[in-house]
Amino acid sequence: MHSSGTRVQAFIGDPVSDVPVVDYDQLEEIFGDIQSDIRYDHELNGCLNCGICTATCPAAHYYDFSPREIVQLLWTENLEGIYDAMQEKIWACAQCYTCAARCPFSNSPGGLVMILREVAIKHGMQSAKEVLRPFSRVMLKLISTGNQLSPDMINPDHFADWGPNISKVDAPLKILRRAIPMPTLNTTETSWEVNLKTSIELYTIWEMTGVLDQLETIDENLFDVITDIMDEKRDDYEDWLEEQEDEED
Ligand code: SF4
Ligand code: SF4
Q1: How far is CA 158 from the centre of its chain?
Q2: Which of 19, 21, 177, 181 supports an S-S bond with 151, CB 3.0-4.6 Å?
Q3: Ligand 2 atom at minimum distance from 48 CA
Q4: CATH class of this structure's domain 7-123
């Protein structure tokens, strides 16, 4: 075990060009955040090192990732190993929870990975920024309208970057969505008309649950754009409330 103050190196992406260095105090702080999560004791109950979780894990078949390894790192409190896994491996998990259904100790490796991801975001780790950057368009749409897309958007005009693959999902998605009794979600005309009061309530939830703090940590530009949108909608809502009051008088 390292004594306090020992410097530890971990690698993200290209180990030659990008080598973050952290001291032991920071490793302890990160592990403290993981351990203090309310879900931690429920998700980790011991570990036989039997490997059943890894044998059933779909991500382990395709990536350099093993839920058994993640659980062992946490169970043995290997702070350097945990930090190292947070640089890349934890982002391979598909969150399918097959592992949790199979573990003889009732551990949830997938649930532990989720905690590690949230702590990676809280600490503004480069791995979190890189993994989440492609989702900024999704975040912007979700936060500004309340919905991301509707079936009538799944076409080449809206997703030029999908290339010829768009034709594979175009018709089937529309048919599938129509099988679900949610007509208001079928077009952008209706699915993007989120009630103003609902939007304001969602903003409050995102603020109170720390979602916006997380966003600010990993993407400050997107955070600024989104808070501008929220301010505008809150102003609109205030105006609407005043209009209602005037009408009642
Ligand atoms: S939740 Fe993650 S770790 Fe568990 S089986 Fe699925 S991909 Fe593997
Ligand atoms: S987490 Fe469970 S299934 Fe995975 S190695 Fe440990 S005891 Fe076995």
Answers
A1: 24
A2: 177
A3: 7
A4: mainly alpha
